[in-house]
Amino acid sequence: MRTIKGPAIFLAQFAGDAAPYNSLAGLARWAAGHGYKGVQIPSWDARLFDLAKAADSRGYCEEVQGILAEHGLALTELSTHLQGQLVAVHPAYDLAFDGFAAPEVRGNAQARQQWAVQQMKLAARASRNLGLTAHATFSGALAWPFLYPWPQRPSGLVEAAFDELAARWRPILDAFEEAGCDVCYEIHPGEDLHDGVTFEMFLERVGNHPRCNILYDPSHFVLQQLDYLSYIDIYHPRIRAFHAKDAEFNPSGRQGVYGGFQPWAQRAGRFRSLGDGQVDFGAIFSRLSQYGFDGWAVLEWECCIKDSEQGAAEGAPFIANHIIQVASRAFDDFAASGVDQATNRKLLGLG
Fold first, then answer.
1. Is 350 exposed, middle or buried (0-12, 13-18, 19+ CB in 10 A)?
2. What is the mean pLDDT of residues 264-286?
3. Looking at residue 91, what DSSP letter applies?
4. Please, is 79 exposed, middle or buried when counting C-beta atoms within 10 Å of its C-beta (0-12, 13-18, 19+)?
5. Can you give the pLDDT at residue 331?
6. Taking the CB of the first residue and of the last residue of the chain, which one, N or C, has fewer CB atoms within 10 A?
């Protein structure tokens, strides 16, 4: 068993153009002031981080770590959620996702995809230079538009999509293997890797690659009505990153999982600020600790009701109160009989 590290916070939802949210130093001071001990950095946000520089300069990486250390913070992981999304984009989403890419490759799907792969390889080198062992990202999606299709999917369509997805990711996984860092795919609706079955389909196609792992976020399982505790039981060997994010699901006679095209506040399933939803975090922290997860508990704040500042302020103590300091000795040691192997054999009638 291991004690989970934390609390930490993903900075993507808090970065902005006004101080203190427009620089890494400002956000570090802000996060530390709320009681966080670690931060997950969105690698695409140039206000906070220079990914290309981090890939090539250990000196720059030391500067980044120094800024965080000045406020008592550690870097938990880098995130490439936006770049990872662009590794595989179905044409139906070309316009929607084009803004995630660098301006010079927008409007050119092939160039954009090549840019995304290069970004991922830069992230592998940057993670190595920063001494990180886990990396947070999305898988992208080719099959997602055919999730619940009419007319029915043609035979072999999903298989072809996952073959292609694996082929695109295999060189990236190899780059992370060289860097000694796990790729942790956030299992998320909208991605081809959105539940256990789809992760297994992908894992098989990348040859059970040792760097193909999971970012566990229970909120996405609540919205799918998937058993998020059993998920830990099944996939804990591959869970290498953890977003602490809450959600609730309140179906009615008018809508359910699909949400009826409603805005977040009117959906049956919606993300909530940590502690305001239905996720059983006591059980989650117990299971992760039991199975030896020794990564970080990282707040990813998303809520359609509560203000982000209140969510951030409440998130650190919530996580801290759920972290279990795992036992260093058995609770019933006081009753240990101290017998030896010979006595054990006698107790069993073995002479």
1. exposed
2. 98
3. G
4. buried
5. 63
6. C
